[in-house]
Amino acid sequence: MGTSSVVSEVSYLAQQKGIDLSQTGKINIDMRTLVGIVLMILSVAGVYFTLQGQLAQLQLDVVRMQDTTNMNTEFRIKWPRGELGALPDDAKQDLKIEYLQKDMTTLQNEIKEIEDHIDKIEGSGVGGKK
Predict the structure, then answer these.
(1) The whole model's pTM is what?
(2) How many angstroms separate the CA atoms of 128 and 121, rounded?
């Protein structure tokens, strides 16, 4: 079936129904139908733009989540290395450990001196040994 036969078939069916199908043809529609068609087109356009807005928002949310994930990965790697600083409590704890290390060094030196002094006393025989 060629295109010309399809066009003639449609023209024949349109003439039977009383519809003039041509470039200068006119359509008679009551106002209720016209308003219904306009409202349908507006509602479809509204749904389309609502979906477009939601899609844009979801894409933005995905970008934000990816950025947050990247920052979390960077934090997870750099924090244990100390590349991102330290908490104030960590600084206090480090300071306390440093003081304790100094105290331990002082005590170890004193113990060494006492041991040396005891060795001298035992070696010279002054300690009351017979």
Answers:
(1) 0.43
(2) 10
